[in-house]
Amino acid sequence: MSQFLARTLVFALAGSLAISPLLVQAQQQPKPTPKSPDEVLRIGAEEVLLDIVVRDKKGRPIQDLKAGDLEIYEDGTKQEISSFRLVNRSGEATVEGTGIPASAGTNSGTSRTADPARQINLVSFVFERLSPDGRRNAKMAAMEFLKEEYGPNVMVAIFSLDQRISVVQSFTSDRDRLKTAVERVTNAAPPSFIEGSQQIRRELENFTRADATAAASAASVGGQGGAGSVNGAAFADAKAAQITIDILRMSDDAARQQQGASSLFSLLSLIEGQKKLLGRKTVVYFSEGLQVQPNQKDAFQTAISSANRANVSFYAIDARGLQTQSDFDSAKESLNAAVAANERQQRTRGGQAVTFEQAKSFDNAENAITKNTQNNLAALAESTGGVFVANTNDFRAPMKRVISELTSYYEASYSPTGKEFDGRFRAITVKTSRPDLVLQTRSGYFAVPTLEGASQLMPYELPMLTALSVKPIPREFEFRQQILHFGDRPSGTQELLVLEVPLANLTFKVDDVKKSYSTHCSLLALLKNSEGRVVQKFSEDFPLDGPVARLDALKKGNLVFTRTFDVLPGRYTLETVAHDRETNKKAARRSILIVPNRGENLKMSSVSVIKRIDPIDQSVSTDDHPFRFQTGKIIPNLGEPINATAGGELGVYTVVYPIAGSSNKPQLILEVLSDGQSIARGQIDLPAPDKQGKISYIAKLPLDNFKTAGNYELRVIARQGQQAVEEHTFFTIGQ
Fold it and tell me: Residue 267: inside a domain, yes or no?
């Protein structure tokens, strides 16, 4: 039985209980993919594995390097190399550049057997949102690669990346199938109106720049500007143009956020999926620029760190070829817009309404830097030991280089002298004593532990993991949590986790110059089985900011985090942490979750008191989130006092899963208790189940019956024939 995990109290009630039902239909939501423990590679801060490509000044590969010719440094501290070998085109490994196969005996009488898994080279071609020119260039480059001889141990897969990553061709050595997949993925056309929209925007920006110049000239000779100083029609045109540009710029900001998130987390999925294999992995990433917004820097660095720990190298190819000037123009436009916004603000001295650009001008300098998305592609490639290719329409030489580097490289490993998992980025530098050599390898990694059964750790999660190891666990501010169970599915019982942080409990920084506020909160939840293994990990980082005029209203609300997951019957420990990053305060909770084997019997979900019902998009029909309905999405009350207003109602929600095929009609019994004593009771017949075999039900209890402030217990019993199942929850009536 699940129950509210937030703190609750119990008071008294007198009067009768009336129940009015409301039947609602739940929607569909894809279930999360369960992770198995063997998906985790045990190479973390305990051992670092490096692929090192070595060339001379003319770009020719060097194959006679010895371990003594190299020095590896981590954060400036020299490390002892524990293994070193050359891997050549055939996949055969040789020891210390001697030409002796790794499986043969060395001159010291010892022997080494190469791990066969390390001889497989996986190559992933990823095609991301390409224009017609980009698709043509990407196709040309991919076909150049497939023409070359790259050895029997190389397997290639083709992926498409838009809002999510999709596989077009799984890993194979069949070149004909790969060529067909490349043809398919490069034939998809983007919406034709995008180019037209960009042209309209350029025309409007030219118009508003001319208008701003005219206004500045008028101001310089004593004019006041505004609607009264210019032709009314021209003024209206200028304002309409500015509104259109603001709409497009706001849309650009949202699109960049969305594209950045989809790109980064899709790439992380690609990395995580390949980390079990110990061999070299290469991603050839065709893109027209990687969006990384300021609040996505942690995710970007995590992608680089994860790639380096999983032995994945990115070869990023800007598929725009020579047509890259627009990227710099976009960054320049943002900086110019920031300057112009500040100038207008100074001229008007606050006498006019603040425009979108003026409100955003303080952020635009940083955004302009990240708008040069070519730099982000270069950083991804160079930081993971790959190469960035741009400003060319001839991809023959770059593709030959990719093949050369994935079929001839050195592999070295070391155990870091710094063992602590402090979450810092540890920079790696490789030097050689031999002159005129160029080394290419990874930039470093985040020193975070590997949790078996959990996805890659993000840097912001580490302080919260540390908080869980402290005794007693910290409780420096209050937050609420609830875990609810619902129906049984093939992968286990569906559970819903809800975390709620009252925003008034967080620390807000106020910038008097910008007239803005900011706060930063992170949340983490770990579900561990009876053996202490992490079977589910959820987290989110919430940087919040906005105009200071809205701060008081914001503090009356809550930060709400929800996740659904399926879990098999058993005993589990739930650990949750909230982190106020402005003050480094932390709050943690630890509780037990029992998931019974309910078989084919009558079942009922946990019971929730409803705070409110928010509207949802009615076109969404594939979401089976247990709190989503045709009419809205339920937001549960996690223990906040309820005002017993005259004529008001208390909503209670549950889902009943009746016995299939039974002729007995299911019933629902509700009972209110105070101090363990029953004070009201009601019974209703439930309607027929929906097509999914469940009955989603909301019962309404008149608040007029709750005359006394205090805490109450609500028991809900579902009955069908001889079977019955019971759930209960608590709620508080305020003063």
Answer: yes
CA 267 to chain centre: 11
The answer to whether residue 628 sits within a structural domain is yes
- Cα 564 off chain centre by: 15
Q: Specify whether 457 is located in the same domain as 380.
A: no
User: Based on the domain organization, do 477 and 575 belong to the same domain?
Assistant: yes
Distances (CA, A) of 5 to 8, 354, 475, 611, 711: 9, 45, 15, 16, 15
Q: Is the dihedral of CA 87, 93, 95, 100 positive or negative?
A: negative
Phi/psi for 360 (5° steps) reads -95, 0
> Tell me: the pLDDT tens digits for 157-208?
999 888 778 888 888 889 999 999 999 988 865 544 445 555 655 666 666 6
Domain encompassing residue 620: 20-33+452-733
Whether residue 289 is contained in a domain is answered as yes
* 254 class by beta-carbon count within 10 Å (0-12 exposed, 13-18 middle, 19+ buried): exposed
- pLDDT, tens digit, 9 for 90 and up, residues 666-721: 999 999 998 888 888 889 899 999 888 899 999 988 888 787 888 999 999 999 99
> What's the pTM?
0.59
Closest C-alpha among 608, 607, 592 to residue 726: 607
Based on the fold, state whether residues 347 and 262 are members of the same structural domain.
yes
478, two tokens: 């209050």
Written as six digits, the tokens of 291 are: 């969006």
The CATH number of the domain holding residue 521 is 2.60.40.10
Give the three-state DSSP class for 696.
strand
35-59: b or e for each residue (b if 16 or more CB lie within 10 Å)? Answer: beeeebbebbbeebbbbbbbbeeee
Task: In whole angstroms, give the CA distance from residue 320 to residue 289.
Answer: 9
**Residue 109: pLDDT above 60?**
no
Same domain (yes/no): 459, 329: no
Are 356 and 471 members of one domain? no
Task: Name the least confident of 4-18, 113-127, 334-348, 666-680.
Answer: 4-18
Picking from 337, 361, 387, the residue at the C-terminal end of a domain is 387
Please check whether residue 268 lies inside any domain of the structure. yes
The burial class, CB within 10 Å (0-12 / 13-18 / 19+), for 142 is buried
Does residue 340 sit in the same domain as residue 468? no
Q: CA 304 to CA 314: how far, in whole Å?
A: 9
- Going by C-alpha positions, the residue among 475, 625, 499, 488 that lies closest to residue 5 is 499
**Nearest residue to 159 (alpha-carbon basis) of 188, 137, 122, 126:** 126
Of 345, 366, 387, the position where a domain reaches its end is 387
- Tally the domains of the chain: 2
Paired tokens of 549:
């005029």
Cα separation, 712 vs 672, in Å, equals 7
Shared domain check, 590 and 716: yes
Reference 152, options 66, 91, 233; nearest CA is 91
Q: Do 460 and 379 reside in the same domain of the chain?
A: no
